[in-house]
């Protein structure tokens, strides 16, 4: 197989300027294309402009799981742009390796199945051996897995979903905490949960249960890090246009990009911000939580959802309003 072609038939692309030029520095990590759906992510510098040119993660070493695609890939590019050294970890060998190659010399790739605790332990050891320490863990790999309703949920489907979306985060926290202790230096642990942890209806039952439990893990890690300087926080994304979405609706990889464009057009106007969520929105939140800008924030749940959790999706209020209108006109008639 051509190593530059990916499992999904797309090649990750990072826009480059002339090597070594300022244009190269600005553009190299300013846009990254998802390997699976071809979606192009606008990153931090383009969003905030040159005024935000500080290197927020200068010399920090980060591990990002689920980094071959979606939010993890966008975050890897953003962390690198801010001076970090990044180990991208993912189960997708070709996509992950190609992304790391494209992202430059401060990026490494390790093929890791996060449901295997031994592989997570060696991942942490690898980052420390390769770059000298570990400062940031972005425990992010995840997938919807079993979408069955509670009444149909089989033990195997529940276990598989929890293994990826809960157990793997607990193991990642464990090995990162041990590394922070070994090196005598604190770190920041960021874990991707979901608004499905707060409200039913966004994803399958097993996934929502796992994401809710992740919030408890995040708080427990924060508590057990009391006085050490280590921080632990959760990001709760709303519906974000990444390759995770199309398979949940039975859409084939080949149609993913067109499908996501249509979803973007359909839901954009419904959000409080007026556009759909992008992987770069999560990357920017992760950058904040990884950096010293958030040095007094730990044990927190940060929703990054375009305001979705700020209002109710339930139709009850609309129905009461309708009844009130009908009631008022009945009163006028009587
Ligand atoms: N996209 C959304 O709307 C949304 C909303 C809320 C939360 N999330 C969460 O965001 C995180 C990132 O998802 P995304 O939307 O970027 O999806 P994505 O599919 O683009 O990325 C997930 C990555 O995790 C990797 N992965 C899956 N299983 C793995 C394993 N066993 N070991 C190692 N890597 C594995 C995949 O290969 C993929 O690269 C996930 O935890 C997901 O649950 C996504």
TrEMBL record:
PROSITE patterns of this UniProt entry? ADH_SHORT
Q: Does the keyword NAD apply?
A: yes
GO MF term set: oxidoreductase activity
Where is the region Disordered? 1-22
* One annotated GO biological process: steroid metabolic process
Tell me which InterPro entries the record gives. Answer: NAD(P)-bd_dom_sf, Sc_DH/Rdtase_CS, SDR_fam
- UniProt keywords, alphabetically: Lipid metabolism, NAD, Oxidoreductase, Steroid metabolism
Which CDD domains does the entry mention? SDR_c (cd05233)
A Pfam family assignment: adh_short_C2
Which portions of the chain have biased composition (kind: Basic residues)? 1-10
Q: Which family does it belong to?
A: Belongs to the short-chain dehydrogenases/reductases (SDR) family.
Entry protein name: SDR family oxidoreductase
């Amino acid at each position: 197989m051509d190593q530059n072609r990916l499992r999904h038939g797309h090649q990750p692309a990072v826009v480059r300027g002339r090597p070594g030029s300022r244009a190269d520095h600005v553009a190299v990590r300013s846009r990254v294309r998802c390997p699976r759906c071809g979606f192009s992510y606008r990153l931090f510098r383009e969003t905030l402009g040159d005024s935000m040119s500080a290197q927020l993660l200068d010399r920090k070493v980060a591990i990002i799981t689920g980094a071959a695609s979606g939010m993890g890939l966008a975050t890897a590019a953003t962390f690198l742009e801010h001076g970090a050294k990044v180990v991208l970890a993912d189960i997708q060998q070709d996509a992950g390796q190609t992304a790391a190659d494209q992202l430059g010399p401060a990026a490494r790739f390790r093929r890791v199945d996060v449901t295997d605790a031994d592989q997570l332990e060696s991942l942490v050891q690898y980052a420390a051996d390769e770059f000298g320490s570990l400062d940031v863990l972005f425990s992010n790999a995840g997938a919807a897995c079993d979408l069955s309703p509670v009444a149909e949920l089989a033990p195997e489907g529940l276990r598989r979903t929890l293994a990826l979306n809960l157990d793997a985060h607990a193991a990642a926290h464990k090995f990162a905490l041990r590394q922070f202790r070994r090196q005598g230096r604190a770190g920041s642990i960021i874990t991707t949960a979901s608004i499905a942890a707060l409200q039913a209806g966004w994803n399958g039952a097993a996934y929502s249960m796992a994401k809710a439990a992740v919030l408890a893990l995040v708080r427990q890690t924060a508590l057990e890090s009391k006085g050490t300087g280590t921080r632990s926080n959760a990001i709760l994304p709303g519906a974000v246009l990444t390759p995770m979405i199309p398979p949940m609706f039975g859409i084939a990889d080949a149609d993913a990009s067109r499908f996501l464009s249509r979803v973007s057009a359909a839901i954009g106007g419904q959000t409080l911000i007026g556009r759909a969520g992008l992987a770069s929105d999560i990357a920017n939140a992760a950058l904040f939580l990884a950096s010293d800008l958030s040095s007094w924030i730990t044990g927190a749940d940060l929703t990054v959802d375009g305001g979705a959790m700020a209002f109710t999706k339930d139709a009850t209020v609309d129905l009461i309003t309708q009844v009130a209108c009908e009631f008022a006109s009945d009163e006028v008639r009587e």
